[in-house]
Specification:
408 residues, mainly alpha, Growth Hormone, Chain: A, 79% helix
């Protein structure tokens, strides 16, 4: 491939990965925003909204955890491109089908299928971008994927506000179909192509648990991302309840809190990716953002006393401090060899999202005993201490040559 077509391929991969993640986040957030309205229109009573909502969220999460493993293994066995487009195809069909549901069981099955589809896109995209870009500049590529992708949340909030919920799902599915049409001319990662014919174990998920060195590296890679989803899953999701505890009498909109948080996450992702390139370090930038998270969580929990405006500003700042998702996923991708890289990069973000479930359960368990503020403080600081320790245990991967095989 000549230099011009090679550059064109790199640009196409970055653009499609970014837009794929945009649709991925759009769907995740859209479901959270339209959950209550869609269930009511399906005839679910007020009393059954919460249990049915939890069922649908759990089905989606189960799909993402299972899908993460399936797509990750496939990415190492069959190639990055096939997973990138296979996942976009699946969640696009599920989105379109979501617009036609008539019953809660139909909705639940489709949320599971959507979850499986959504699990593959980011890992395949980041793996591809990491492998096709020059090692000195690949952080810029993954930074663009995450920054553009996160704006999908903002668009989801706007679309859900402007259109009927079924139409909003059709929009998501339509965007995915357009992406599939755009796929023409995108080539597989050269690194992956080079090991296709080599007799080496590819996508050995069990190896991550049977080899001590790989296991701890994998565990640390997951741990550094958990605080990001604690912020979204607890502090932002339950912002109306926190507002009451802070003595704020104005009505707090969860949708607005989510939107401000995601604008912050997009800004943070751009900033952390840019800083990691400028200072040539992933570790120190992630550590810096974890320290920012600690600071802003304490301010959020103990220093907001007066208004909704203050709360929304804190949602924005919390988002910025949690905006190291791109660096975190890139770091995970760079820690492992070609033959297991897609498995790691695809499962790590989904296990982080899955970690929200135990974190939320512990938060709910502690709240009656300690109150909502101290419950959040205990859970949040626990995740942050583990995350900070994990950063210190991982290798610096900036500029690392990724063209190697994991022989453990």
């Amino acid at each position: 491939m000549n230099t011009t077509s090679s550059r064109r391929n790199i640009i196409a991969i970055v653009v499609i990965s970014a837009l794929g993640y945009f649709v991925d986040i759009y769907d995740l957030i859209l479901f959270s925003v339209v959950r209550i309205g869609s269930l009511k229109s399906l005839g679910v009573s007020e009393a059954d909204l919460l249990p049915n909502g939890v069922l649908l969220l759990n089905m989606q999460m189960a799909g993402m955890l299972i899908g993460g493993i399936i797509w990750g293994i496939m990415g190492d066995k069959k190639g990055r491109i096939s997973v990138l487009f296979g996942s976009i195809f699946l969640y696009s069909l599920a989105n379109i089908a979501n617009g036609f549901v008539q019953t809660v069981p139909q909705f639940a099955i489709l949320r599971f299928i959507a979850g499986v589809g959504l699990a593959g896109e980011l890992g395949a995209g980041i793996t591809l971008v990491s492998e096709v870009m020059p090692k000195e500049t690949r952080g810029y590529g993954t930074m663009l994927v995450a920054t553009i992708g996160i704006f999908g949340a903002v668009v989801a909030a706007i679309v859900a506000d402007s259109f009927q919920w079924r139409t909003a799902f059709f929009v998501g599915g339509g965007m995915g179909v357009l992406l599939l049409i755009m796929r023409i001319g995108v080539f597989e990662s050269g690194m992956y192509s080079s090991i296709k014919t080599i007799e080496v174990a590819k996508g050995s998920f069990h190896k991550l648990f049977t080899n001590k060195k790989l296991f701890f590296k994998y565990l640390y890679s997951i741990s550094i991302g958990v605080p990001i989803w604690f912020i979204v899953g607890v502090l932002i999701t339950f912002s109306p309840e926190f507002a009451k505890a802070f003595g704020i009498t104005e009505t707090i909109s969860t949708g607005k809190a989510v939107m401000f948080c995601y604008i912050g996450l997009a800004a943070g992702d751009f900033l952390s990716g840019f800083l990691s390139q400028i200072f040539k370090t992933r570790k120190k930038i992630v550590a810096l953002f974890i320290l920012m998270e600690i600071t802003f969580i304490i301010v959020y929990l103990f220093f907001i006393k007066s208004s909704a405006t203050e709360l929304y500003i804190m949602c924005l700042l919390l988002g910025i401090s949690g905006g190291y998702w791109a660096v975190f996923v890139t770091n995970a991708s760079e820690q492992f060899g070609i033959n297991i890289r897609a498995t790691v990069t695809t499962t790590v973000p989904n296990f982080v999202r899955g970690a929200v479930v135990p974190a939320t359960l512990v938060f709910q368990y502690l709240t009656p005993m300690t109150g909502i503020v101290y419950s959040a403080l205990i859970v949040g600081m626990s995740t942050l201490i583990i995350a900070f320790f994990s950063v210190t245990q991982l290798d610096e991967t900036f500029g690392k040559d990724l063209n190697y095989i994991e022989h453990h």
